[in-house]
Amino acid sequence: MLKFRERLSKNCLPAFNLELVYQCAERALEEELNETCSAAKCVPMSGISERIFVGTWRDATDEKLLRQMCITHTLNVARELVDTEEMHRVESVPFVTSKSIPLSDSLDEDIVHHFEDAFEFIRGATRNGRILVYCRRGMSRSAAIVVAYLMESEGMSFCDAHNDVKDKRPCISLNLAFLQRLQEYEEHLEKVRAAARTN
User: Where does the Tyrosine specific protein phosphatases domain start and stop, copy by copy (predicted)?
Assistant: First the structure.
């Protein structure tokens, strides 16, 4: 953890206050994670690439906006939105194919376990369409999935992918566990690619 902390502090500056995490201020983190989604916190959807967007549940229910941005697929990665009125509104948009992968924005969520499922849906969506990847506020879970996808599909490093998404959506704020999992995922990808080069 210390090695990760030092490298993360040098290379990428996450939006969370890491000192609170290091001091085990779980209460402060929980309050931030569970904060009510207000208009001030919900930034409109952001284009990460020509075919991939990151946003909020409000974007996913805005049929006019989805049509305007030519969105053909939506991927929900917020556990608390599954089987809700908001989710039913998303699923009722006639020209959009929707999918949910229930993730919690918590320090014990094993986000890597869900990467391949998410990547498969994103790959299918971006062949001929556009996808909105969203969570409650479009700040942590959805951003983490897109960062990981860029690492896997574009061969980007963790920091390059994180910085690319943050440049295009400055409000992203991945929790510490996601940042660590993404760093570990980078090491995994490096080993896989190194092995492929030797074969």
Answer: 109-170
